[in-house]
Structures are given as C-alpha cells and as structure tokens.
From TrEMBL:
Pfam families: NAD_binding_10 (PF13460)
Protein name in UniProt: NAD(P)-binding domain-containing protein
Family membership: Belongs to the avfA family.
Organism expressing this protein natively: Letharia columbiana
Record-annotated NAD(P)-binding domain positions: 12-225
Molecular function as annotated in GO: biliverdin reductase [NAD(P)H] activity; riboflavin reductase (NADPH) activity
PANTHER family to which the protein is assigned, alphabetical: FLAVIN REDUCTASE (NADPH)
The organism's place on the tree of life at top rank: Eukaryota
InterPro entries on file: NAD(P)-bd_dom, NAD(P)-bd_dom_sf, Polyketide_Oxido-like
Length: 243
C-alpha cells in the first residue's frame, strides 16, 4: 500500500499498456481517474464496489471539457501524474490509422486543458507520461535492422503522428517522460527489461535495441518506475524499453 497517495489521470487505459499501468497503480493504493469513452470497459474489470480508488469519467480524449474533469485531484490542485496511451486503430489495407492525428490532438488537448485550469487558479505541475514507439529516434537506429522496412514504410503514418505528439510535449515546458516501447505483444512475463535513455535535445545517453516487449510488462515497468516511485533519471527524457 502506498505511503503517499498520488492522484493519477489515465487516458487510453481500457486496453494494453495503459490498462496494465492502471492495474498496478491501483494495486499500490493510489487514487486513479480514468477517462473512457465506454466506461463499462473498465468497470467490468474494476467493479466500483471493490475498487473505490478508481473514478471512471465518460468522455473522449480530444474533448477539452472531459479531459479537464480528469485533471483536478481536489479543489484548486491538479493531479500529480498524467498517463496517456491513446492511439488509433491500424488499417492494414491503407497503411494508416483510423485517425491520423489521434496522438497529436490528444496532446494538444491535455496541454490546453492544463493551461485553462491554471488560468482559473488551479496549481500543480503534473508529470506527463506518454506511450510512443521505437523507430523514430533522431540520434541513430533504435530498432533491429530486420524491422526497418516495417517501421519506416508500413508504420510511417502513425509514426508521424507520434513524432508530432512528442514534439508538442517536449516544447511545452511541462515535466514529462516519453516511453518508446519495442513492438508490443501480449502476455505478462518475468523477462528482464532493458532500458535506453535519450535526451530529445542532446542525444542518446544509453542504448537498448530489441524486437519486442509485452503490453503487460511495459505497463508494470511504467507503474514501478514512473508512478509508484518516480525515478529522476527518466524525467524530461525519452525512454526505450525492450526485452
């Protein structure tokens, strides 16, 4: 159980990395606020009667009013952390996603919501964690050679959206950590997770190149290193995680 109870906002936590991070954050006793278009996706997994520290708010991550509701921990104070793992559905036949600007619009909404809340008197500087992907480094290759065709051709459109999201966050002046996970697969494991760190301005500090990592293990790593205890090495950095 957490000795200090944080309030953490989740966007995109109904599946994948976000869901795993939410599960481990709740288990540690922290208060969580999750924005979900279909609340039953979360309340079925976390019944309200047995999960009193989870508040599920119905809404879209591109709706500034809905997002704003999720960013206030208590009157006058913003939440301590924001975990955003939103993304689009990949359409293989068109080599694109159903919303080609889903991540950049989501980041713009978060930043505008924070600005509006602060202009209304709210205080606080949440640490913003966003889910991104490897294959986008400006400082050299961060994926195996065999994966270059898939990442640079098939995933070109969603990667452009992720880049725009990352740039907006880095330039915002907010505290952040960008998680670039390897190709996401299913299944919780006990495998060792290797970590690389990149500064968006000065370049790579350490390298970790791999093929895959599971959504469940990525979410647990995020919870352990960025929520339950915030490791200062990862603040205002891009972090690559892989097996």
């Amino acid at each position: 159980m957490a000795t200090h109870c944080k309030t953490v906002t989740f966007l995109g936590a109904s599946t994948g990395v976000g869901l795993s991070t939410l599960k481990h954050t709740l288990a540690a006793g922290h208060r969580c606020i999750a924005l979900c278009r279909i609340p039953s996706k979360l309340t079925t997994i976390f019944p309200p009667e047995t999960t009193p520290n989870l508040q599920v708010i119905q809404g879209n991550a591109h709706d500034i009013a809905a997002v704003s509701k999720c960013l206030v921990a208590e009157k006058g104070k913003l939440v301590e952390e924001i975990i955003s793992t939103i993304g689009g559905k990949f359409i293989l036949s068109k080599m694109t996603i159903d919303d080609e600007e889903v991540c950049r619009k989501g980041m713009t909404t978060i930043l505008e919501a924070l600005a509006q809340l602060r202009s209304g008197g709210a205080t606080g500087r949440p640490h913003i964690v966003v889910g991104s992907t490897t294959g986008m480094s400006r400082f050299g290759r961060d994926i195996p050679l065999a994966m270059i065709p898939m990442y640079h051709v098939m995933l070109k459109v969603p990667h452009e959206d992720k880049k725009a999201m990352e740039d907006r966050l880095v330039e915002s002046g907010e505290a952040y950590t960008i998680i670039r996970a390897s190709l996401l697969v299913g299944g919780e494991t006990s495998k060792e997770i290797r970590v690389g760190i990149e500064d968006p301005k000065t370049g790579r500090e350490s390298k970790a190149i791999g093929y895959t990592i599971s959504r469940e293990d990525t979410g647990k790593w995020v919870a352990d290193n960025l929520v339950l205890q915030l490791d200062g090495r990862y603040v205002n950095k891009i972090v690559m995680v892989t097996y």
